[in-house]
Amino acid sequence: MATMNISLPDEMKAWVDEQVSRGRYANASDAIRDFIRRDQQAVAHLQSLIDEGVASGISETPPDKLLEDIKRRTRAKLKAAAQDAA
Questions:
Q1: What are the DSSP calls for 10-67, one per residue?
Q2: For residue 33, which of 41, 43, 45, 23 has the smallest C-alpha distance?
């Protein structure tokens, strides 16, 4: 395994140290590796969404109609969530 020295602002170091002291990680190296792993997964997920969008082709629907559809579906989801919470 390769070794890398990094510099962190005091606030970030304190946060990492706190995660270790709470037992979430065995040490700072474990924490940093987990943060990098999570970032890699997030980037891969975003790239897959981009690839899916590109593969879907160009929409024939005008942008204003797309936006209205997104708003309508979002309102419906929010309404359903509010009803489920009640």
A1: HHHHHHHHHHHHTTSSSSHHHHHHHHHHHHHHHHHHHHHHHHHHHHT---SS-HHHHH
A2: 41
Determine the structural domain holding residue 48 and report its residue range: 9-55
Q: Is residue 85 located within the same domain as residue 68?
A: yes
Residues 6+ apart with CB under 8 A from 69: 61
Both 51 and 68 in one domain: the answer is: no
The Cα–Cα gap between 71 and 74 comes to 5
Residue 82 in any domain: the answer is yes
Could you list the pLDDT tens digit for every one of the 86 residues in the chain? 899 999 999 999 999 999 999 999 999 999 999 999 999 999 999 999 999 999 999 989 999 999 999 999 999 999 999 999 88
The overall pTM is greater than 0.70: no
- Interatomic CA distance for residues 75 and 69, integer angstroms: 10
